[in-house]
């Protein structure tokens, strides 16, 4: 006889339910005397009660099934250690029979009235053909208890009134342009070209979004000197703005000039929406965010108390927003800086875990969010995120780990897996956010994901600049398809610099980047690289990757130690194919068995003068011929210096490189130097598993 299958205890939650009922029925009974719970919190309390009745253990697996509908939360749902399952008796929170279940941090907005009087229009703009202007008074905004910067209209992100409607203006300069050594010092004002400013009214409700180097700054406007073109802000930029940096302006009345745009008068508490002419507010769903997080899984690693064996399946998480802490009206801000120095790392996840162990997120959707989708912070181990979709993200997709190095083993985050996920359309509000961010965290596996359409980096690993202690080793990145980073598929961008399909920094011994496809990566001023080893990246292996169509190179190492770049294909970079920056008195990297194939730009850029690296058994080919050099040296001079003694300048004979078919012909000379063909047909998410 086989093992006895345990009976599952089931609770149900429904918008038509009541928390006073038993929660054991999927629908109300005929007399409406019993039925499902109304809230997830009540179902979790039922789990806690069962454990209390059984000396802290579950007698059987427990499943909480949510019926279809949108659950508008007034606070984040807390899941604690008291709701944990056990290895053979997990607690599962899932949609009922794959019904559409949305946990929302927003509030539906109704009570719209059409603006028919000219004096009710907040701007002096000309009427926009094919539109109608609507307004609604929001008392909580007027009182300073609510403010928002993002909305969703019938499931789509609404465009906050923007100037210009498309594209970007360029910064004219700042008062400390000549102080080149202090580029990292932000400022409360900078100059713009006066003709670029919107006219006709005060800009006091407006915000400037300014891009510099690899970050954006979101800057509530304090004052405007139109004659001088001087904008002053309530917050400081992250770095000094340089002439030519991009910026745009949001939430000024005169920018309300395109169908679908909206404007919020924070002081007056009035929301305006310039709707298409046929928009019917009674048949439309207009949602503004009120929460920054939806679920908090709160263990306490310091006390050895964890949330364990919880499975969340088939749920949708939507409508969150976060902004820098300050006064309730969202404008008089007490913090100093309007951005983060890298990757928008301080923006929280809509679903947030601390002290989370052996939990699963499966077939969930993290969509229409103003934050990161999911974050695993302190003390999170052995968790799996699989077959999930992350889309329309104000920030990025997933954060794993912290910026802090934890000394206690129980406090460290490691050994998690993200697999078969689609993570795209990110950085919509915080442009510098990334698809997957791993901080001080090791031994994670990032596999078979599709990451696309971010303004900054696809995958970022590490949070130690240089050779000091780091916890980011042993991460495996494999079979991912990462593309349109820096530049989006709709043609927007690049607006930031210094990015990569994958970006690393610090000591990372045991980290392997293999069998990935990276392409269409673009930086604004510099730094659209495919594989980017920055700031002390050490002990990393990058092998069997295909990288093509980058602006500044398939590979770049700023500085680091003993990295291995082996058996990759780097093709069709624009400015140069590879770059090495800082010379150091140790082996910087080994570049062996690679194919480099290009039709424009230089082969190498940066500093290769110290020869503290190894190049050998590579194939180089410039399409169409023509001269090229190896870091300023001829082929013979380069080889005489000890480099590429067993390498070739030869056409590798790809099948159809113009159409991204980089398979090798059977007689490819690359085979003679030891290049091993690899198959990338399995990159990206595998077949989705159903509940």
Name some characteristics of this structure:
14-stranded parallel β-sheet, 691 residues, 3 helices, mainly beta
Written account of the structure:
By secondary structure, the chain is mainly β. 3% of the residues lie in helices and 37% in strands. The chain is built from three helices and 63 strands. It has a 14-stranded parallel β-sheet with strand order 1-2-5-25-29-32-36-40-43-46-49-53-56-59, with helices on one face. The chain has a 14-stranded parallel β-sheet with strand order 3-6-26-30-33-37-41-44-47-50-54-57-60-61, with no helix packed on it. A hairpin with a 2-residue loop joins strand 16 (207-212) and strand 17. The chain is globular. The relative contact order is 0.08.
Can you give the mean pLDDT? 95
What structural class do the secondary elements suggest? mainly beta
The end-to-end distance, rounded to whole angstroms, is 28 Å
Strand residues, percent: 35-45%
Please tally the β strands and state the result.
Answer: 63
- Rounded to an integer in angstroms, the radius of gyration calculated over CA atoms is 27 Å
Low-pLDDT runs: 327-334
Count of helix runs: 3
Strand order in space, largest sheet:
1-2-5-25-29-32-36-40-43-46-49-53-56-59
- The residue fraction in helices comes out at under 10%
Largest sheet: 14 strands, parallel
């Amino acid at each position: 006889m086989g093992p006895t299958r345990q009976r599952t205890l089931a609770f149900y939650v429904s918008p038509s339910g009541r928390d006073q009922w038993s929660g054991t029925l999927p629908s109300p009974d005929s007399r409406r005397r019993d039925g499902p719970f109304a809230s997830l919190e009540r179902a979790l309390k039922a789990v806690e009660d069962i454990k209390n009745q059984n000396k802290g253990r579950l007698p059987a697996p427990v499943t909480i099934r949510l019926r279809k509908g949108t659950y508008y939360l007034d606070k984040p749902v807390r899941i604690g250690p008291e709701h944990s399952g056990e290895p053979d008796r997990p607690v599962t929170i899932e949609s009922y029979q794959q019904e559409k279940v949305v946990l929302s941090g927003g509030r539906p907005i109704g009570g719209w009235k059409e603006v028919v009087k000219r004096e009710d229009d907040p701007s002096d703009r000309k009427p926009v053909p094919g539109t109608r202007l609507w307004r609604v008074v929001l008392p909580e905004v007027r009182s300073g208890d609510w403010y928002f910067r993002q909305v969703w209209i019938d499931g789509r992100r609404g465009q906050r009134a923007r100037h210009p409607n498309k594209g970007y203006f360029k910064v004219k300069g700042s008062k400390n342009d000549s102080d080149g050594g202090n580029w990292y010092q932000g400022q409360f004002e900078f100059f713009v070209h006066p003709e670029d400013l919107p006219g006709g009214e005060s800009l006091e409700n407006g915000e400037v979004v300014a891009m510099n180097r690899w970050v954006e700054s979101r800057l509530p406007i304090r004052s405007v000197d139109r004659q001088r073109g001087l904008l002053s802000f309530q917050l400081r930029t992250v770095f000094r703005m340089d002439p030519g940096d991009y910026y745009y302006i949001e939430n000024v009345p005169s920018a309300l000039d395109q169908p679908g745009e909206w404007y919020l008068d924070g002081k007056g508490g009035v929301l305006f929406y310039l709707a298409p002419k046929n928009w019917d507010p009674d048949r439309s769903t207009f949602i503004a965010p009120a929460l920054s997080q939806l679920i908090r899984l709160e263990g306490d690693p310091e006390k050895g108390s964890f949330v364990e064996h919880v499975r969340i399946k088939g749920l949708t998480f939507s409508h969150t927003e976060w902004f820098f802490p300050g006064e309730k009206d969202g404008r008089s801000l007490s913090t100093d800086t309007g951005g983060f120095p890298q990757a928008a790392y301080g923006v929280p996840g809509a679903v947030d875990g601390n002290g989370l162990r052996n939990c699963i997120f499966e077939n969930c959707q993290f969509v229409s969010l103003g934050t990161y989708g999911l974050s695993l912070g302190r003390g999170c181990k052995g968790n799996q995120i699989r077959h999930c979709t992350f889309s329309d993200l104000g920030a990025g997709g997933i954060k794993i780990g912290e910026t802090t190095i934890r000394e206690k083993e129980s406090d460290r985050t490691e050994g998690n897996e993200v697999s078969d996920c689609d993570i795209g359309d990110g950085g919509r509000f915080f442009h510098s956010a990334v698809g997957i961010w791993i901080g001080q965290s090791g031994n994670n596996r990032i596999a078979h994901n599709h990451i696309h359409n971010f303004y900054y980096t696809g995958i970022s690993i590490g949070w130690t600049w240089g050779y000091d202690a780091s916890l980011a080793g042993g991460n495996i990145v494999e079979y991912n398809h990462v593309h349109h980073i820096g530049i989006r598929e709709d043609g927007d961008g690049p607006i930031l610099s210094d990015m990569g399909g994958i970006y690393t920094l610090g000591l990372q011994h045991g980290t392997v980047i293999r069998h990935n496809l990276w392409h269409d990566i673009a930086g604004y001023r510099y730094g659209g690289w495919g594989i980017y080893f920055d700031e002390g990246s050490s002990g990393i292996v990058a092998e069997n990757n295909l990288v093509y169509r980058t602006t500044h190179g398939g590979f770049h190492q700023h500085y680091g130690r003993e990295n291995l770049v082996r058996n990759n294909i780097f093709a069709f970079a624009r400015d140069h194919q590879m770059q090495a920056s800082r010379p150091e008195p140790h082996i910087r990297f080994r570049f062996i068995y690679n194919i480099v194939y290009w039709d424009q730009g230089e082969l190498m850029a940066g500093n290769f003068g110290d020869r503290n690296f190894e190049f050998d058994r590579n194939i180089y080919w410039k399409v169409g011929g023509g001269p090229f050099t190896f870091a300023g040296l001829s082929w013979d001079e380069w080889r005489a210096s000890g480099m590429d003694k067993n390498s070739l300048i030869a056409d590798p004979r790809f099948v159809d490189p113009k159409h991204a078919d980089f398979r090798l012909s059977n007689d490819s000379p690359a085979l003679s130097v030891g290049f091993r063909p690899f198959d990338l047909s399995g990159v990206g998410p595998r077949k989705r598993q159903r509940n």
